[in-house]
Structure formats: structure tokens, C-alpha cells
Hints:
single chain, mainly alpha, Arc Repressor Mutant, subunit A, Four Helix Bundle (Hemerythrin (Met), subunit A), 2 domains, two-stranded antiparallel sheet, 10 helices, elongated
Amino acid sequence: MKKIQKILVHEQVSQEIQNYIEEKDLSEGEKLPSVEEMTQMFGVGRSSLREALRYLEAMDIIQVQNGKGIFVKDVNTFRFTGKVKIERERNFLLSILEVRRALEGQAVSLAAKRISSKQINEIEECLDEYRKLKEANKDTSQIDLAFHRHIIKAANNPVLETVLDSISGLYEKFFNEPLGDKQLFDETYPYHMTMFQGIAAHDTKAAMDEFDKMMDCIEEKIKSA
């Protein structure tokens, strides 16, 4: 549940910053309040605010200049409702996907070598819950995210886990109504099963082949959405 709360704070803060830009009618190049001022304005911690700033900077909405401040980069990047334009979000997801292929792909490879019997059982339970939710046509986004976190944990590499956790706000964009559709990646469900089968059998090649198919499917869905 802590991860869900983190997503909500990140989204709320980035939305409030966009609302501030609109309300103050700021233009490109105009300066935003400092980090210290915004933590007071929005009543959030520095870590939550910085995560929101990283997200908005990646979306080309703001620009953080070290030693100078935070500036509006492009007021046309988001709609006045605060929602990022579909084309911008599509390109953003594709950029994250490139990073995800590299980092999570390494996690899958390591998990196939290091996964324990206990972790295999935990993932089997996770996939069973995933199946039940999918068959009931319910939201599977959080159980999907939980599945991938199990794989990352099974890699048994604390540095890799920390790196992925450090970009969790970006990573979780795939599970938080991407392009306005919570079920956008439902077609990847079979690859969860086959990838896990490869991992559980300690068959690195089979696991990676299925992981690549999953990433290809996600990429195609993003491009065609």
C-alpha cells in the first residue's frame, strides 16, 4: 500500500505545479518558486516534490537549472486540465520502455538464475490472483505491478533493485492508466505466464525470449494507442 500512496502523492504534486503555472499564467522562461517554497505551498516533503519535478522535467514542462532555479519550459506541453497531451505521453512511455528493457531485462535474467522456491510460490500466488481479476474484468494494474516487483526481488541484486526503485515514479506510469487506459496492456498477460515458467525452470534464454515478446507487445500497444 505504501507504493500506491507514493504514486498518488507524485501525481498530486505534479498536478498542483501545473495548476500553479496555469493560475499564475506563467510563460516559457518564467521562474517558479524554489523547492523550499513549494514544499510549504503544497504541504509535501522534499522527496515527493523532487520526484514530481523530475517527472515534469522529463515531460518538458519545466527546466531545472542548478544554482539558478526552476523555470517553465513549455506551457503548451499540457492541456489546461493538467493532462499531458497524448503524443507527448506516448513518446515519454516509449523512452521509459527503453530503460525498462535494459534494467528489468537484467532482473529477469538474474531471477532465472537465483529465484528461490519460496519466491516461485509467491509469484504463483500473484499470477493466480492476476488471473482471477482478469477473468472478472477487474482492474489488474496493481497486481501486474506486484508481479514485476516480485521478479525484481527474485534477481537478488540490491543495487539493481535500488536503481529501479529510484525511478519508480516513471516505471509505474505503465501501471497507472497509461494513455488514459488501465487495460491497455492486458494482452501481455500470457507473457507473464510464459516468462515466469522460464524463470521458475531456471531457463534464462526462455525467460528472456518471453520478456522480449512482452516488451515488443507493450511497445506496439503504445505506438498504436
